[in-house]
Amino acid sequence: MGTTETETRNNGKEQEKKPEGQVISTREGIYRLLKRLENKHTPLKLNFDAVADKYTSMVIAVNYKEGYFLLDEVTPRWGDDLMAKAIPFSFESFHDGCRISASLIQASGRAVKDGAPVYKVPFPKNLHFLQRRQFYRAPVRMSLEIKVRLGVKVPPEKRDEYDNLIHQDPTWEYEGLLRDLSAQGGQVDVEGSLQETLEKNTQFDCCHIIFPNGDFIELGIIVRHIGYDEKKKVSSLGCQFTNLDPKKDQKISFVVTELQRDHARNASGNASNAAPSELFEPAAPSKDKKDKKKEAERSKEEANKEEKAKVEQLDTRSAHQLAVKAVRTLVGQLRNKEALDIQLAWEAANQLLVSLEKQRQELILYTRIRSTGQYLFEHSVSVAVLLADQMMFDKANPKSKDDEFLRNLIFAGLCHDLGKGLIPERIIGKTSGLTDKEAKVMHKHSLLTREILSRQPGTPEVALQVATQNCERLDGSGHPEGLKGISISPVGKLAAVIDVFDAMTNGRSYRAGIPHALAFKRLLSMNNQLDQPATQQLIKHQGIFPIGSLVSFANGDLGFVKSLTATASPDQVRLVFNKNSGRPLALQDIQVGSGSNWTKVAAPEDPAKYKLNNDLLLHEI
């Protein structure tokens, strides 16, 4: 995958070795990976040419514009001489099952910060990225009980009753608890010593991993290692999965991701800020066969009502996070050529619809706050929310109160860019202008999305329209089909305006978004390409100072709009900075018109000018 490069040396002769994983050569791709190392405080293992010793450092800053990163002091400290002399070195790092490495790089400068040396290093020509998912072991917290049963024996005639037998019938040889899990296997703790009664490499054709909510995965395993803790009187079995088909492999990967998220959620101390996985929640009371039959026969309308009732228990931030995760998972499945779990998008659409109806402004606020490296996923969620929000605002349209249509519209927005998962990363991540050839490849993403969605059962027509028509333009200059004016559906025209608006106002890792007021001005100037009634409707409903935008007051105070009045003018603003003094302010939420200093908003402002980010709206004060 990519070009070969010299990585090992033997008796003074260079040997070429093909790098593992992906070779990342775009500036944006390299920036994104280095930024991950900085944000996660991940140690780097350094290896200098012609020096046998290993050294350690960390990335402390990354500069995209000038193409360099800063390394913290090197340990052991005598590595400082090697770095100061610009001796070429390579590095590798590991985080969450990912290996990031580079070679043939060297420092171009040295400085002292807080009494310790730091080093300026130009971006490497390439970074090697390998998702070592088969080696990453997701831990299971001690309070989470995931049962594992080895050697499960269920007679064929009772297979239909297994949902009940799994919790009642002791038809297995060993039972234990899962302690960690990877794509290839896991550790199972079983009470008592098994070192004499269970041989290594014993194979169990039928093993069940049973989750607290009652779901289970059935697979085969081989016991590769057996350890015994005399104090705890527990045997630890190192198990390897056997004969995993693609569907089971996908399930295991999903569980590893959920365990990783669960571990981070509990380790952060902010468990309430992220929704727990349904896998790890206690099972609801079991239903008899009659109840199950009735449930299967419910109408679609009744099912949707129950889904909405369930979603109402989620907080708005969790609904937004789960929607972002759904899009990210679907794009990942496309990139990995895995089966598409489109149900994730439907579940996210239900969650977002309820949040939009109950906490509209709060949900829009979360769509306006972006994370580095998440643009594609967060953009899709934002487009989905704005499509439904604008439709609900259009009271003259009978579909503005049609829950099923609104749900379909949100689904359409979530999925409208899925085809980009099949576009090469060198094109998706390119920071400079695309060549004609690259542009043709990029423009295929709309048709790819339509093709992907058309193969999914139950895909509504509006999703197919949004997938392609969000890229069409009134004058025929759009793609993929060059439709003009009346040939573009009303929802397609609205989707085009929203897609352009969101893309303009939200930055990438390599550039900042433009202020909302400037975006509105540009939208209005594109009257030959974008539908002006849809543009005017967007401005009227979102307000000329939308939620998440930066505004100024007459006294020089700057703040981000947190909420709007019924007439879409700023209501509550979070003060963050004063441009007259050039100093940050203690975070404070004020009501516009509540005092002489904040009688009314004076003007829109550009956050990039003051190096401000609207994620300050999430800080507790």
Describe the protein's architecture and organization.
With 621 residues, the chain is α+β, with helices and mostly antiparallel strands. It folds into four domains: 127 residues, Electron Transport, Fmn-binding Protein, Chain A (Pnp Oxidase, Chain A), CATH 2.30.110.10; 126 residues, predicted glycosyltransferase like domains (Thrombin, subunit H); 240 residues, Hypothetical protein af1432; 69 residues, no CATH class. The protein is built from 18 helices and 23 strands. The protein has a nine-stranded antiparallel β-sheet with strand order 3-11-8-7-4-5-6-10-9. A six-stranded antiparallel β-barrel has the order 13-14-15-18-17-16. A hairpin with a 5-residue loop joins β16 and β17. α8 crosses α10.
Question: Structural class of the helix and strand makeup?
Answer: alpha+beta
CATH domain fold name of the largest domain: Hypothetical protein af1432
Portion in beta strands? 15-25%
Q: How many discrete domains? A: 4
Name of the CATH first level of the largest domain: Mainly Alpha
- Whole-angstrom Rg: 28 Å
Total helices: the number is 18
* Poorly predicted segments: 1-19, 268-274
CATH architecture of the largest domain: Orthogonal Bundle
N→C terminal distance: 49 Å
Shape label: globular
Helix content: 25-40%
Enumerate the strands of the largest sheet in spatial order, edge to edge or round the barrel.
Answer: 3-11-8-7-4-5-6-10-9
What is the CATH homologous superfamily assignment of the largest domain?
A: Hypothetical protein af1432
Averaging pLDDT over every residue, what do you get? 83
Counted beta strands: 23
Report the major sheet. Answer: 9 strands, antiparallel
